[in-house]
Amino acid sequence: MDYYLQEAMVRHNLDLSKEQMIVLKKLHDQDGLNQNELASLTYRDKSSLARLLSKMEAKNYIVRRQSVEDKRSNEVFLTEEGRHIFQRTRPVIKEVMETMEQDLSKEEKRHIIHLLKKVQFNFTKKTEKI
Questions:
Q1: Is the separation of the CB atoms in 24 and 85 below 8 Å?
Q2: Are 77 and 57 in contact (CB under 8 A)?
Q3: Per-residue pLDDT tens for 2-52?
Q4: pTM
């Protein structure tokens, strides 16, 4: 699925990776998150998120600003270009989802979701034991 999604992005002339798209989505939902919150929400370690954000800053998708409350942390905001690129991804994601769900009945979709939730629960139980 990752490969198909990346191919769809390229086909639509979107200079965006899946990881960058996830960050854009989180910021679209809640602009101004600090980097620690964003790392947690995207399941990334702080250093890999910092590298990802640097790339996104170079593309003018986001801007980092020092927090007013805590000078040690940065808050991350979407730029107009970031908002624009995020809006351009929506039809591409819809296309990928439609391709993925093609010829699946509602019952088959429900069954897949049920199975994936079970798998997710199994991983959650395992990480709680660690």
A1: yes
A2: no
A3: 899 999 999 999 999 999 999 999 999 999 999 999 999 998 999 999 999
A4: 0.82
